[in-house]
Amino acid sequence: MIRRREFIAGLGGAVWPPAARAQQPTLPVIGVLISQTPGPYVERLAAFHRGLKEGGFVEGANLAVEYRWGEGHDDHLPALAADLVRRKVRVIAGLDTTLAVVAAKAATTTIPLVFVIGADPVSNRLVESLGHPGGNATGVSAMADELGPKRLGLLHDLLPNASTVAVLVNPTNANVEPNVKALQAAAPSIGMTLKVLSARNEREIDAFFATLVRELIPAFTISPDSLFSARRERIAALATDNAIADMSYSREFPAVRGLVSYGPSIREMYRLAGLYVGRILRGEKPADLPVMRPTKFELVINLKTAKTLGLTVPRRVLAIADEVIE
C-alpha cells in the first residue's frame, strides 16, 4: 500500500507541513474515487493532474484532493462516495469503473461528477445523451465494446493459425455482455472460435491460465476492467511464462512484458478528465459539457515478448504500430 504522502509526492504534488497548511487560505476540494489500490494508478493520476494544471489548478497550491480507494472491494464504493459527499467536495472524479461512478451518482444529485469509464454512459443511465448529459455527470468514455473486434483481428494477424482464442472477462463488470457480443459477432469472419472465461480475483486469474495451458489455447484477449489493469504485471508474466499470446486494451500491459495492446490512450483520457474538472471548478456545468470520446488510439507491440513466444510480427502490423518496445 502506498501511503498518501508518498503517493502525492510521486505525482509531484506539494505536501504541506501542518504549520504551513494552517497558514494557507481555504482551498477548493475535489474527491477522487477509485475502486482499486494506489500503486497501478500513479501514471494515470499524473495525467489527471496534468489536465488539472492545464486548467489552472495544482494540488497543494490552489486545490486540495481527497482520495478514496476501494482496495478492490466494490461493495465499499457506496460508503466511500457518501464520505466524499459528507466532505462537501466541489467535484467527484470517478476514475476507473462504472460501479464507482454509479455509487457516486447514487450518493448525490447535486455535486458534479466527472468520470473515466469504458462503458456507454447512456445505457448505464449516467447521462441523458453523449452530447447533452443533462444531469450532474459528464466525462470521458472509451465505448470499449466497439474496439474488441479490432483487437481480435490484430490478434489473428499475429497468430493466423490460432483457431481458438480465449476471452478473459470480469463477470461483475456491467460492460462485459456488449463486449463479448461484439467479439462473438466478429470471430466467425476470421475463422476463430471464442472461449469466454471469467476471473474475479487473483485466484481465478491463476485458474484462467491453468485452463489455457490444459486446453492448449495459444492466445487470449482481455476485456477492459480495472481488476485486470491493477494486476497487469501478474497477467503479463503468467502469459509470457506459459508461452501464451495476450492482446490487451492498454499500453500498460506490453510495458510490463505483455505482447500487444490496442486501445485509446488511457493517459489522454485521464488528462481530459482533469481538464473537465478544472472547467467545472471555474463555473461550467456538467450538464452542458458533452461526454468526450478518445481520439487518440495506440497499437503497442513488445518485440522482446514476441521473440520469447517465438512469434514473428508481420511487417504490415509493425508498420501501423504507434510504439514498438524492444
Keywords:
326 residues; disordered N terminus; alpha/beta; Rossmann fold; single chain; seven-stranded mixed sheet
Summarize the structure in short.
With 326 residues, the chain is α/β, with parallel strands linked by helices. 38% of the residues lie in helices and 18% in strands.
Summarize the structure in words.
The protein has 326 residues and is α/β, with parallel strands linked by helices. The protein has two domains: 4-142 and 265-288, Rossmann fold; 145-264 and 297-325, Response regulator (Rossmann fold). Helices cover 38% and strands 18% of the residues. The chain is built from 13 helices and twelve strands. It has helices at residues 4-10, 18-23, 42-54, 77-86, 98-107, 148-158, 176-186, 202-214, 226-230, 232-241, 266-281, 303-309, 315-320, and strands spanning 29-34, 64-69, 91-94, 113-117, 137-141, 164-169, 193-198, 219-222, 245-248, 260-264, 297-302, 323-325. It has a seven-stranded mixed beta sheet, sandwiched between helices. Strand 1 (29-34), helix 3 (42-54) and strand 2 form a beta-alpha-beta unit. Helix 3 packs across helix 11. The longest helix is centred in the last third of the chain and has 16 residues, at 266-281. It starts with a helix and ends with a strand. Residues 1-6 and 12-23 have low confidence and may be disordered.
